[in-house]
Amino acid sequence: MTLDLKLDFYPAPNPNRTGVLVLPGGGYEFISMDNEGVEPAQWLNSRNIDAWVLSYTTADESNPAPIFPAPQREALEAVRRIRALGRIDKLGIWGFSAGGHLAAVTATDPSAELDFAILAYPVISMAAGTTHEGSRRNLIGDGCEAGSDAENAMCAEKRVNENTPPTFLFHTANDSTVPVQNALVFAAAMAKYGRPFQILVLPDGPHGVGLALGDVRLCWMGELERWLKGSVLGG
To answer: What residues contact 161, with CB distance under 8 A and at least 6 apart?
Structure first.
C-alpha cells in the first residue's frame, strides 16, 4: 500500500545537491509548522540546500493515540521518495522536539542511510523521568509498560551504533518541557560508539525556541552553520 504523505518541497535557488528532511515538533499531537518547518526550510534554502517538510501523523480524533508506527513509516517513506528524485547526493534530517524524536529514530534506522542529523531540543528517550510524557502517550500509549521491548525500541539512545550518521544536538539546560537529559543521553551513546557529534547546550532558554533568529542570547544558527560546513558540506 502506498503511503499518503504530506511532504512539502522547498527548492534551493542554487542547489548544491545536499537535502534535508525537516520534521517539526508538536508532541506527536500537532505540527509546529511555521517556526519549526517553514523557517528552517527557508534557512536551508538560503544556503543552497534543498528542504522537504513532512507533516507526519499526529494524535487526534481521526488518529487516536497510540499512533506508532505511522510517523516512523512516513519518515522512512519520505527519505525514500526524496532520494528517488535524484536531486541530491547527501541527505540529512532535522527534527525539533517530538520531531527530533522522529528524526533520531529515523537516523538510527539502517535502512534510511542518512548522511547527517540535526536534533533540536529533541525528545530522545521514552523512559519515565526523561521523556516528554505527552509525546510518549501519543506515540506508544500509557499502556506501554516501562522497560518493555516496545518502549526500548523507541528509545533513540538505545538505537545508536557504529553506523549512526554525524549528528548536531541543540538544547537548553533548563528546558522545562523536554529535559536536557534527552540530548545528553544521545550524545553519550554517540561517544560510546565513537560516532562524530557536536552538542550545544545553552544555560537558559525555554522549550520551542525554533531557530531563535534575531535573539543574540538564544540563536544557535552560527554553531550549526559552522558544523554543517565542517562536517557535512566541506570547506
So the answer is: 108, 193
In angstroms, the CA 144 to CA 134 distance is 13
What is the overall mean pLDDT for the chain? 97
Q: Are strands 50-54 and 7-10 parallel, antiparallel or unpaired?
A: antiparallel
According to DSSP, the residues that pair with 50 across neighbouring strands are 19
Question: E strands within 62-205?
Answer: 90-96, 116-120, 167-172, 197-202
Summarised one tens digit per residue, pLDDT across range 155-174 is 999 999 999 999 999 999 99
| Per-residue cell: 232 | 557535512
Integer Cα distance of 182 and 187 in angstroms: 9
State the greatest distance between any 2 C-alpha atoms of the chain, in Å, as a whole number.
49
CB atoms within 10 A of CB 173: 13
Q: d(Cα 160, Cα 45) in Å, to the nearest integer?
A: 29
Burial code (b: 16+ CB inside 10 Å, e: under 16) for 82-108 equals: bbeeebbebbbbbbbbbbbbbbbbbbb
Helix or strand run (H / E) with residue 81 = helix 70-84
Residue 208 DSSP code: -
Q: DSSP label at 97?
A: T
How deeply is 124 buried, as exposed, middle or buried, from its count of CB atoms within 10 A (0-12, 13-18, 19+)?
buried
Q: Is the pTM of this model over 0.85?
A: yes
pLDDT at site 3: 84
